[in-house]
Amino acid sequence: MPKQLKRKLKTYQTSLGFYDQAVAAPSMKAALEAWGASSNLFHQGVAKETDDPAIVAATMAKPGVVLRRPVGSDGSFAESAALPSDLADAEDKPKRKSKPGKRAAKTAHKPSRKIDDQQARKASAAFEKEERRREAERRKEEAARAKERARRDKAVAAAEAALDEARREHEARTEQIEAERAALDERAEAEETRWGKQRTKLVEALRRARA
User: Fold this and answer.
1) What is the C-alpha separation between 102 and 83, in angstroms, rounded?
2) What is the mean pLDDT of the segment spanning 108-128?
3) Which residues pair with 24 in a beta bridge?
4) Percent of the chain, pLDDT > 70?
């Protein structure tokens, strides 16, 4: 069996947002990756390894899967957890659940359930499988993002090309208009010169006729 499947799993717990989160992982680094944390929650004091029998049992049953429960509660960890309805409800929950709290206090003194070698190998294999699943999802999301970037880049390139073509057409038309305007100015100037000469002759002829 590959060495990575023989890593001993531990249970790590933290609180993020509205949830307490727990995961069975071979290291703190692996736990942070499973939580999607961008900083070291352990160094910040908001994450820890736990040996609570109930939490350990729940996470070891689904290695690598992040389990949740409403933050501040003492309920069971599960893949899906209800969001606290409001802060008041969250504060009242420990009072309403006094009995489960007692049960938790009793079980806290019980030694953690030992996992034999076969169970440890199965748990490690399950963790590796979950890691591969998450990695496959990340690759799929990255491929989707790359495809979207390619589509966007293609659309931008097409728009820029259309703008450049329209600009070149505009500049060509402007040059043509300017050329035509220069030709008209030249024709107008020539007409003024012709008219000036003709007028001079006609005025002279009129003067002679009146003499």
Assistant:
1) 24
2) 62
3) 11
4) 79
